Write the structure tokens for this entry.
Amino acid sequence: MNLSKRIKAMQQSPIRKLVPIAENAKKQGKKVYHLNIGQPDIVTPAEFFDAVKSFDEKVLKYSFSQGIPELIEALIQYYKRYDIEYESDEILITNGGSEALLFSLIAVADHGDEVLIPEPFYTNYNGFSSAVGVNVVPITTKATEGFHLPNKEAIEDLISPRTRAILLSNPGNPTGVVYSPEEIQMLADIANEYNLFIIADEVYREFVYDNLTYTSFGNVKEIQDRVIIVDSISKRFSACGARIGSIASKNKELIKQILKLCQGRLCVPTLEQIGAVELYSVSDDYFKSVLEEYQKRRNIVYNSLKEMPGVICEKPTGAFYVIAKLPVVDAEHFTIWLLEEFNVDNETIMLAPAEGFYATPGLGKDEVRIAYILNENVLRKAMSILKDALEKYPNKK
Amino acid sequence: MNLSKRIKAMQQSPIRKLVPIAENAKKQGKKVYHLNIGQPDIVTPAEFFDAVKSFDEKVLKYSFSQGIPELIEALIQYYKRYDIEYESDEILITNGGSEALLFSLIAVADHGDEVLIPEPFYTNYNGFSSAVGVNVVPITTKATEGFHLPNKEAIEDLISPRTRAILLSNPGNPTGVVYSPEEIQMLADIANEYNLFIIADEVYREFVYDNLTYTSFGNVKEIQDRVIIVDSISKRFSACGARIGSIASKNKELIKQILKLCQGRLCVPTLEQIGAVELYSVSDDYFKSVLEEYQKRRNIVYNSLKEMPGVICEKPTGAFYVIAKLPVVDAEHFTIWLLEEFNVDNETIMLAPAEGFYATPGLGKDEVRIAYILNENVLRKAMSILKDALEKYPNKK
């Protein structure tokens, strides 16, 4: 019996495949600072655990396929902070942002259809697309341009009769880009002119620095029936292990159709939904303090990178990632070298080689993604290790 | 923008679509006994909640994509009770049995491939298959034969060059059938001769009555590289709202490939996995007492049905469902009539019309599925309401 072509073609997580090498380094007694994954160290608000622990029913029953009404209501209130109005039949709770993305792709594209995605992109966009037979067409963006979008014509050139949607994260993972209001409007115009959906992964909505104006696709009124907003509590409230995401769209027919997929998997865990209600009710102070913390970290990482000879990166303005071009021939080799052969006082760092974030072969070979999800002191130490390593690494460009 | 053909073609849950009618009946003050869904009233073992509540980390982090090691180990021990040996790299934890099914289908079949499924079947088999472009080819089984399988030739006739797998639940939902050791061996032979996978949904493994011999596909040694066992804690431990399922297979390459899908969705909720470890460690007494309870219920339902004129059903021997052929023209109409127009002392019942469990058009129109998931007294009352209703219902055959 043969496995399906689609599963064999699926890209392995470029980050997770290096995990055994890091584990090995740790076994040999090396301390490894993880700059490679988006697992924040910020404490999950206690309200989450309190709510989960106060659950006192005797039977843990199936919940509603669309999500519990209290959580849908909490999301409606949350979106109002951003001037976005949703009704209860316009929101579905999902198993993380991951399921929201998977279901959105199934709903807008058939086998062989195409979805435009600015690259470098969150690699799982690729994985989900292959799994359900959707072809990814990358819109290439560049480190030297801060990963902002090319002009309208360049994007239009990529559209074919099979293009069904534009999928993007804003703020961007792995780039840290925040698209300008003009870029958002340009994409909205394209969606309108070419009859496309926009799947807007806005899980990092709160992580926008330097008081920059953030435009959600939920704010572009004239294309609301084309917009699908994907959200998650993972990064927003440092609750990655809860796996609570959501889909929101003013296109009620779309929501009704995706509800069939939700019914197919019956429901999302009850306990985490109860916890998530409390998270979406935290005060603005929570967001403010988390934002300050990340902005401080962004500054540490960016300022350190700017001081390293040969490193190219524009100041990232959102999420908690930065992609840096390093003066190395092969960033994956550099990452492995860091784990296997390098240390400063028996400490080293783990990076995410960026090639896996690109769909176009050959791009990103000298780039890494750095997640600034560690505290100030550790970050400083980690960046100093990187600086040292770049000096000593033999395979430089 | 158009929605995908596949999502529009997806069947709506035949059970969930009647929910608004039941809600309406309740709003009018009617008590509705739900025989339509597999939501047991059995108490979830307290060990689950105790474990969840003892979680004391400050950050709810991402967990391992394959599942936490403790839960994988608990499953290895659990399978040993059934003489099934798995190693830790042969098991993946999933978001319920639902995700296990979805991932298995993606892994064994490409767009346009076929999967054989004995009908009537769990409707979500159909939903997942359409979502990922796999065609369901039904192996028709009959109420009059207790839903046992047809002979080998009849099944072989359904096999085409695009057939990739046989998918089945054993004990069966919605039929309550438990396949004999000979039936299991016949399917194993077919899988071997035609180079097919077997996706064995065995979530009701413990629910086998009358001391019948149960054969898991995990016990058919000679085809272990073809067998994928789907499991779930939902019914086994009455923990439907936890959404913890699993995939097990001696085919390590298959597991390795499906792990890519698991990595794509990052992980399964941490808290429920911690709870599930405790569930899989409950003593045999738990299973024994639950089994006794369900066997008693099965007897009540079956004996009541046998007394109703014109009702046809063979004694079900597993799971907690029975499909009965009723002396009515249209079981869906009868179900709606029960909710909208009938009552005994202001009480009525909700059934699951069985037509939606068949892929072959026209089959099951006069059949319903009854889930015996309510306690003895309520079940007796519900069955007496059914008897009464069948006498008074106008559109009889």
Summary: The first strand of chain B starts at residue 31 and ends at 34. Residues 5-43+285-392 of chain B form a domain with the Aspartate Aminotransferase, domain 1 fold (CATH 3.90.1150.10). Chain B touches chain A through 81 residues (CB under 8 Å). The two ends of chain B are 46 Å apart (CA to CA).
